Amino acid sequence: MSNQGFYPPQRLLMGPGPSNVSRRVLEATARPTIGHLDPLFVDFMDATKGLLQWLFRTDNALTLPVSGPGTAGMEACFANLLEPGDEIVICRNGAFGQRMVEMSERMGARVVVVDQDWGRAVDVDAVEAALSVHPDARILAFVHAETSTGARSDARALARLAREHDCLSLMDCVTSLGGIPVELDAWEVDAAYAGTQKCLSCPPGLSPVSLSERAAARIRAREKPVQSWFMDFSLVMSYWGGGGKRAYHHTAPVNALYGLHEALLVLQEEGLEASWARHERVHGELVAAMEDLGLAFLVPADERLPQLNTVKVPEGVDKAAVRAQLLDEGIEIGAGLGPLAGKVWRVGLMGESARSESVARLHRGLRQALS
Amino acid sequence: MSNQGFYPPQRLLMGPGPSNVSRRVLEATARPTIGHLDPLFVDFMDATKGLLQWLFRTDNALTLPVSGPGTAGMEACFANLLEPGDEIVICRNGAFGQRMVEMSERMGARVVVVDQDWGRAVDVDAVEAALSVHPDARILAFVHAETSTGARSDARALARLAREHDCLSLMDCVTSLGGIPVELDAWEVDAAYAGTQKCLSCPPGLSPVSLSERAAARIRAREKPVQSWFMDFSLVMSYWGGGGKRAYHHTAPVNALYGLHEALLVLQEEGLEASWARHERVHGELVAAMEDLGLAFLVPADERLPQLNTVKVPEGVDKAAVRAQLLDEGIEIGAGLGPLAGKVWRVGLMGESARSESVARLHRGLRQALS
User: Fold this and answer.
1) A130: distance to nearest CA of chain B, Å?
2) Dihedral (CA of A125, A128, A132, A137) sign
3) Among partner residues A18, A51, A252, which is closest to B254 by beta-carbon distance?
4) Which end of chain A is more exposed for a tag (fewer CB within 10 A), N or C?
5) DSSP B100-150
């Protein structure tokens, strides 16, 4: 048992998340804790909710930060929208599509999987074909930005398909939100969940979610209550519902919410479009730097995410030794997951980490490590 | 939509939680975020786990902070230990016993409730009678410290009963841990969950849990996987398991864990026994102060928790106006919950808030508000 304080070093976080958190956001999390039912806190919740609606580009009333990491927000969306026996079509082109399958199966859903190679965007035509032969499907679920592969899928087209086939669309935008366009209302997405530790550059631990009125109606019409009391949106909304009186459900993570609120203010000051443009520009710099080192990307250029890049490990290179050497220099990059383990490095350019200086440091560090 | 920074005031938090968080702990949460798979973080996790074992007074290997508030840790324990159709005996003497019932019913358990008046300890004899006529019961669940009423139950006796009747014991110690003795190994408790925002004086958002080898064996022997992927301890332990390699499950709330670790160091420096004694001493001062104001307690003296006190609202007093006036003075106390709404105030003396100065300020504030 250690009895020493923990003083983490200042890393340059260029893995799949968390990304770097600014001093400004960290200091916001350290403001005095107040009660989760304090009238000042209730006003603050309304402000946070408004900022999340702005971020998701939606008027959805059911927009809130789930009190847990992205995986909790993900499970909350599936748990509220799925009933046992429901049919769901899931697009699986990476680890998070696979996670959707596992969660849905545990909830007793009938799962139809549309597989695609890891490293490629979801095949919209294949999804349309699957929906055509599964007319009973109630939900189409997909990952907008696959953190395990760096592939970007066409969320607008998939949401449109869902609507044409009378399905709700359920979108993972954990890694996309803040880094590339996410337009819930314009795309008519019914449910979306995200994380705070990617392009929002907030500490991990909260999951912004937003559900359309169609999705909310589906929840109200459930035959059985959600199995999870903690995640049941009909209960959570009695606290987050907005307007005056709030009923106690669980104790909100007060200080983590301070950090999220401040991170959203930072993003608002920069502007969403400006943030998207910055991620795109720095991604261009990364591509040039990797090409300079003779390194190739897994994902075809027109399907790449700017904020999450899978770079192929060259033949004969000890991938773990390179990551360890970079970490010695204070730079974290990520390893490959699942079938990509050992084959790629994952280089994140998210939020505060999406800076020209980050690319320059990584360029130098990788050149040394590979020499 | 607000675009202003949120600067909460410094409250004296004397409600049912959160309690006051020291500057030292808040500053720990604001240390630089590092990756959840960083080797330094993995060592830090081992240290945190060691401190939690010390806190729970246990050698249980399955000891970890769940990545969510107390309610998430609660649901995780029930979800892992219960299978559909299992019989469970639940002691209900307040709002959190009622929550146990609701969660267990949603999970498809057959629930036997042993009711007791709100404001009283669980009746051990009634529980023994219930276990005798329900020999198939697999779990006995109870709340050690009922936050809704301020009643303290005999956890040791209840855990012993569970063992005699071949049940696992499942204990809510959200409000007891750190404030009064909690002895998992000496009492042979099989599963316990807590929160960080009570006597540990940490921001809300994490839930320390600990399960015995008997409980872990029950989980390994499940016929069906836990419905919740997020809460499945067999998956969570692949990350928190200890010793070397950790598998990614979900992104840990890195900065919140810094705060918990620091709060545990603070408690270790004071000493657990000294903390218990301080809570007891300050409770005595509160009793004297309330008696001085002619205020009575709901709970009989020998069943009272030192850290959570339900004080009866006198006839003819506007209970909400008193709370509002105290809040104007910067002092938060809690309202009554459920059947106690309007009848009591809940006065917390938890962790950093359990100080003679807190009682003195509340004494002055209440005298003014009641005059």
Assistant:
1) 26
2) positive
3) A18
4) C
5) HHHHHHHTT-EEEEEE--TTS---HHHHHHHHHH-TT--EEEEESB-TTT-
Rounded to whole angstroms, the Cα distance separating A20 from A200 reads 10
A139-143: strand order across its sheet: A62-66, A207-211, A191-193, A168-172, A139-143, A87-92, A110-115
Contact B72 A103 (CB under 8 A): no
Q: What confidence score (pLDDT) does residue B363 get?
A: 98
Question: Which of the four pLDDT bands, split at 50, 70 and 90, describes residue B246?
Answer: confident
With 60 as the cut, is the pLDDT of residue B1 above it? no
Nearest CA in chain A to B37: A334
**Pairing of β B207-211 and β B62-66:** antiparallel
CA proximity to A124, closest of A87, A152, A150: A152
Q: Which of residues 292-321 of B touch A (CB under 8 A)?
A: none
Provide the residue type at B340 as one letter.
Answer: L
Nearest to B319 by CA among B305, B337, B306, B304: B337
Q: What is the mean pLDDT of residues B172-179?
A: 98
Q: CB neighbours (10 Å) of residue B225?
A: 14
Task: Check CB contact of A67 with chain B, cutoff 8 Å.
Answer: yes
Which residues in chain A have their CB less than 8 angstroms from residue B12's CB? Answer: none
Residue B243 pLDDT class (50, 70, 90 cuts): low
Q: How far B125 CA lies from chain A's nearest CA (Å)?
A: 30
- Nearest residue of chain A to residue B227 (CA atoms): A106
Smallest CA–CA distance, residue A265 to chain B, in Å, is: 6
Q: Confirm or reject contact between B94 and chain A (CB < 8 A).
A: no
Which of A312, A318, A350 minimizes the C-alpha distance to A332? A350
Cis peptide before A18 (omega within 30 of 0): yes
Q: Which domains are delineated in chain A?
A: 12-17+272-370 (3.90.1150.10), 23-267 (3.40.640.10)
Average of per-residue pLDDT across A153-171: 98
| SS3 of residue A121 by DSSP | coil
Q: Which candidate from B5, B35, B54 shows the least CB-CB separation from A265? A: B5
Cα distances (angstroms) measured from residue A213 to each of A61, A108, A208, A218: 8, 24, 17, 9
Maximal C-alpha separation, chain B: 63
CA A330 to chain centre: 25
Tell me if B68 and A71 make a contact (CB, 8 A cut-off): no
- The CA distance from B29 to B17, in Å, is 19
